[in-house]
Amino acid sequence: MRLSILLAAWLSWASAAAQVERASFDAGPFSLGTLTEADGALGRDLWQGAQPDAIRSQLAIVPTRFDDPAKRMMLRRVLLTPGEGPMGADAALAGLKLLKAVEAGYAMEAGAVAELTPGLGLQPELSRIVAMRDLYRGNVEQACGRGANLREGRQTAFFVRLRVLCYIHAGERPAAELTLNLAREEDVLAPGDARLFRSVLSGSAPSEMPRGAIQYAAYRRLGGSFDDADLQDLPPSMVAAIAYDSTLDVALRQEALRHVVVNDLVSPRDLEDIAASLKSEQIGKEIAAIRSLPPASQARGGAIGQALQAVVAEPTAFLLRVKVFEADIASTGVNVATVPYAAEFALASLLNRRYKDAESWMQTVAAEQSLGAERAFLNLALLYSYVKPSAAQRLAGAIGEEIASPDVAPLTIADETASLVTVTDLSVQMEHALNAAASGSRGALLLSALGTAAVEAETSELELIRDTLGADLYRRGNAEPIVREAAFRREALAAAGRLRDDRIGKDAYIPRLKPSSSAR
User: Which of 202, 158, 199, 165 is nearest to 180 (CA)?
Assistant: First the structure.
């Protein structure tokens, strides 16, 4: 009885609350972001109706790591979509949002956003984000300058800790030791700080892995390195930093790059620069060869097609090239050099969300009029139907085929990785859910939904409440397009190497009622 009352109360109240009139918003630092509509940004009205205090509470506890790629994709888009912020959102709230982006692995993008804010010296929350980005990029002196230029907030915990590192970096040992002692007395050191700083001061080898941007910079100053196994446990922003770090082992950086591309930790432009710096690896050689060809030329297009086709059966290697050559793929047209790779260009365009380009390449595939081309065309149409079902059916219908829209499993609410990062009480999540429903804000609804991943339910009754609540929040936040896109990406990469070999998902095709007039 208690279960049914709680669920009925939530569902009926949330339905009514969602009808509350939405307010207009002031623009501010909270509203900045790096994503565009082509990247999957969620809309400039993402935070419309949200209250700053409620968003602050949600951001404080939302998990930043998930098992489920759809949840990771969702969090990235919530945190990095630009648009009107909640009315009254200040730099402190913007800093909290971007800090969550750093913790989720997007330090480079978060730093780029924070750096755009005027009057950075008066905003320690945002200066911290930029300094963290600098530290992860190995620019210690630049990060120290962020702290030195602050006119407010120099005594916040982050900048006190940063000053210890900066004094060490400048060779001012007495000042470093004094600041370290003061930081210990004021209890602003993070776990592991004291041991790592002492190691740097004494020149001894570090005894444990770093846990954040300041510790990463100190660890690297000592010559601390990593191995492939460490990449599974390090913070995602640190994995991205390893990929950038040209002083580290090339094989380690190559492995870090695999993590970076799978989890979308850097922009395509930075991804290309990282990959190009791996000059002894195959990807570095490919980029150098392709960069030597005239932009938008047939030769360049053909070389990119060949590079895609060569790794089409290796999902991560294929995705890396899709992202590295994103701009080139978008500017490549159909010609004698690119037609042999039309299926690969079509799939790459779908993965890059260039849907009109993908349709043109798919039509090029169909024009080949061979059995392999028909299979590739229909397989591409099936994959396309995950994200654009009506457009996919229109294309398939042109050759007399009908495609059943693929089913996508609903999100599993509980997430083991999320609960390892943070644990939330169900009553707290219920309060956030009610606030989100009252606001009607898609951002608030999705943050609250993601928060349910870390709720530990001690009984089957509480588990049912959590799962019902989470599912309803995802529904109200219109999570389905993101869930379908994540499913498309998984299926597309799995099928990339066999587009021409056989029809994937055979049950998704409805047989023709009569033969097509197209030549076979």
Answer: 165
Alpha-carbon dihedral 321, 323, 327, 328, rounded to 10 degrees: 10
Rounded CA-CA distance 58/431 in Å is: 10
The residue whose two tokens read 């079902």 is 389
Q: Residue with structure tokens 């750093």?
A: 102
Q: Tokens at residue 137, please?
A: 């990029």
Residue 60 has pLDDT above 50, yes or no: yes
Of residues 483, 451, 447, the one with CA closest to residue 466: 451
- Of 467, 473, 471, 421, the closest CA to residue 444 belongs to 473
**Residue 189 falls in which region: left (phi positive, over 0), alpha (psi -120 to 50) or beta:** beta
Report the alpha-carbon distance of residue 96 to residue 333 in Å, rounded.
43
What angle, 0 to 180 degrees and rounded to 10, lies between the N-to-C axes of helices 236-244 and 107-115?
90
Q: What is the rounded distance in angstroms from the CA atom of residue 137 to the CA atom of residue 245?
A: 7
402-412 residue pLDDT tens: 888 888 999 99
If you count DSSP H runs as helices and E runs as strands, how many of each does the chain have, helices first? 27, 2
Of 167, 27, 21, nearest in space to 85 by CA: 27
8, 138, 208, 225, 347 from 221: Cα distances, Å: 57, 9, 14, 10, 43
What one-character DSSP code corresponds to residue 266? S
Asked whether the beta carbons of 108 and 136 are under 8 A apart, the reply is: yes
Which residue do the tokens 């009925």 mark?
A: 8
- Name the one residue in this structure whose structure tokens are 């081309």: 373
pTM of the model: 0.90
**Under a CB-based contact definition with an 8 Å cutoff, are residues 90 and 475 in contact?**
no
**How far apart (Å, rounded) are the C-alpha atoms in residues 6 and 210?**
44
Look at residue 422 and tell me whether its pLDDT is greater than 90. Answer: no
What is the rounded distance in angstroms from the CA atom of residue 504 to the CA atom of residue 508?
A: 8
